[in-house]
Amino acid sequence: MARKKLKISELRTFDPAEYLDSDEAVAEYLTAVLEENQPELLAAALGDVARARGMSDIARSSGLAREALYKALRPGAQPRFDTVARVCAALGVKLVAEAVRPSDLKHRATSAKAGRARA
Question: Is the model's pTM score more than 0.85?
Answer without folding.
Answer: no
